[in-house]
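Hey, I'm writing a tutorial for new members on how sequence and structure tokens pair up, and I'd like a real worked example in the thread rather than a made-up one. If someone can provide the structure for the chain below, I'll link this post from the tutorial.
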Amino acid sequence: MISMTLDEIAQVVGASLYGVRDPRVLVTAPAAVDSREVVPGGLFAATVGARVDGHDYAAGAVAGGAVAVLASRPVGVPALVVGDVQLALGRLARHVLERLSPTVVGLTGSVGKTTTKDLLAQVLERHAATVATDKSFNNELGLPLTVLRADAATRYLVLEMGAGRKGDLTYLTGLAPPQVGLVLNVGTAHVERMGGGPADVAEAKGELVAALGADGFAVLNADDPYVRGMAGRTRARVVLFGGSAEAQVRAEDVRVDGRARPGFVLVTPSGRAPVELDLIGEHQVGNALAAAAVAAVLGLGVAEIADGLNAARRRSGGRLEVVERSDGVTVVDDAYNASPESMRAGLRAVKALAGARRTVAVLGAMGQQADASRARHAEVGRLVAGLGFDVLIAVGAGDPLAMVEAAESSNAGVAVHVAEDVAGAVRLAGALVEPGDVVFVKASSEVGLGACARALAAPPS
């Protein structure tokens, strides 16, 4: 973060200073909303969540090095008190951006955002100083925190932008107006809160490209009709990526090796180059093309882009994270979140990885699927059976049971089990998994199946 005095910050966010001896003291490090992540010279933002009130941790944050606390009430330590901490963080982020003026890339989509963001960041940071969203901090708190990590050396700011409702991306692009907007796809994630159908999701996702100026770039998935249709909502220049022959950035000669890692020939306006990804699943080709298309509009050549993709590694946990146990069991943790699209991609990737090995799927609910939820869970069950998984463990009551019924009715020979909760899934999977198995764990984040994946990935006793 650029250095700013407490008095400067107070003026920007409209704060009153409490317990501050010297308003000229400098904040020299980024902000944090977790007191455990405060670094000396930083700012602690005391937000109020469903279970935790950050104000209770204000003293500890200052003891840990925070210069002051951005709070909604006095907290007994140096504080900038505002009416709304979240809005204040947003104002501060916008102010910092106006002073720095990096190239801002905003990206959104129903699935693949975090992986694409990680790939793009690794391509760009080989070229110039780059700050990118950490993990999936892509909301009204995570985006300002990312912006506040930028400094005078930052050339590229890569911002993952999540949308749970219509209007979310309008708000986020107001805080950090992008010069490049990337839309990956339109799926069923958050469909319940957006109106119930893919057109509603497309309307929400399209807010990103609608925010672009005429001198910007809208990078759109040529293979998704809802995304391609967003070309009519932007003043920016449109660049297409995908498998279509009309895409300016596309893949040819796609193949998958014995460890389910895809390779292809990257084709861009500047030429062709081979790419070998160190990620599993053929669907990663689309994520890589999206990253390549953004890098191309930013002026990188095809060889430089391919080198960055070839060197890229998985950075964010819980997304097709592969762990090999000493007894030959492979655990694939994809439990960060789930939608029908990501379920399909993950199941196919795991089967490609497994080859002839025995496969176990530990699956929980996919949230926010509206009235189609039960039918979409049943589709997953049929796919598990159709792909030839040996064991299905459905976790939780309700819609996950539709996976069980669909898998059983397929008569494909998959052994079906039900676990009441995460703890039950750990016990059941622990009893059923055999040496050499490949185990796939996935559900929406609120299910908490990441704990199951971590338990299964632990060295066998």
